[in-house]
Amino acid sequence: MAVQFEKEGDSVYLLLTKEEAEQMWREGETGLQKVAVGSRGEAGSGFHMCICQPDYAETVRALYEEILEHEGRVDILVYAPCTHAGDDGAVGERHSYEAIYAATERNVMGFRTLVDTIVPLMSKSTIRRIAVITEANASIRNCVSEDDYGYYLSLAAVNMAEKIYFNRLRKEGFTFRNYAGSCIGETMGAAWYVSCDLSNNPEEPSIHSDENRLVMRNSLYEEIAW
């Protein structure tokens, strides 16, 4: 999906965990290159694949140093938490609580580590946008799942983390997106919603301005209640 954000002259960094990179390699993903932690892997003009464990600060810091050396700034940071803990939803059954903890640790604390490290590079940009790709099941009102407890718990926590970052960084010119895809008859892709500028009239009530509040929207541009 990250490739969709690429325009001529842009540099796009696709961050993969070691497990994701190995799985893509096994599946024969075209253009995937195994690269060392924090190093640039060329997969086309302006496109870089990096192995980065977001819950390990040293790998994120290595990524920071790479971008600082070659690009000097980050315009848009897109975070898509995707670590599951397996089948951990059935009530009354034994679960791997270590796996649940590991999933929530990577998804939630990985987000914080990534944002805290990359924000100084974003401050050098005129765009300064942080986006989270999530699911409607991360909304209390819209959750219909009966399993995958750890995963959806972590998505809800990431939403709260994004709101806290919004409160802190909006006044510094940062904007935020929260996109829940996979809607039947979808008309709006994540790339469009993340990259486009929205209503930002200072005289408008914040409820009418997507730039002055944090909104979860689906691919029909419908607002999803938290």
As a whole number of angstroms, the C-alpha radius of gyration is 18 Å
- Strand coverage percent: 5-15%
Order of helices and strands: EHEHEHEHEHEE
DSSP strand tally: 7
Report, as a whole number of angstroms, the end-to-end distance. 25 Å
CATH superfamily: NAD(P)-binding Rossmann-like Domain
CATH topology: Rossmann fold
Low-pLDDT residue spans = 1-6, 29-45
- Can you identify the CATH class? Alpha Beta
Q: How many alpha or pi helices?
A: 5
Number of domain units: 1
Helical content (DSSP H or I, runs of 4+) = 25-40%
Task: Name the overall outline.
Answer: globular
> Would you tell me the overall average pLDDT?
79
Report on the architecture of this protein.
The protein has 226 residues and is an alpha/beta fold. It has a single domain, classed as NAD(P)-binding Rossmann-like Domain (Rossmann fold), CATH 3.40.50. Helices cover 34% and strands 14% of the residues. It is built from five helices and seven strands; from the N terminus they run βαβαβαβαβαββ. The protein has helices at residues 18-26, 57-70, 97-122, 149-169, 190-195; strands spanning 12-16, 47-51, 76-79, 129-134, 175-180, 216-218, 223-224. Strands 3-4-5-6-7 form a five-stranded mixed β-sheet. Strands 1-2 form a two-stranded parallel sheet. β6 and β7 (223-224) form a beta hairpin. α2 (57-70) packs parallel to α3 and α3 packs parallel to α4 (149-169). The longest helix has 26 residues, at 97-122. The radius of gyration is 18 Å and the shape is globular. It starts with 11 loop residues before the first strand and ends with a strand. Residues 1-6 and 29-45 have low confidence and may be disordered.
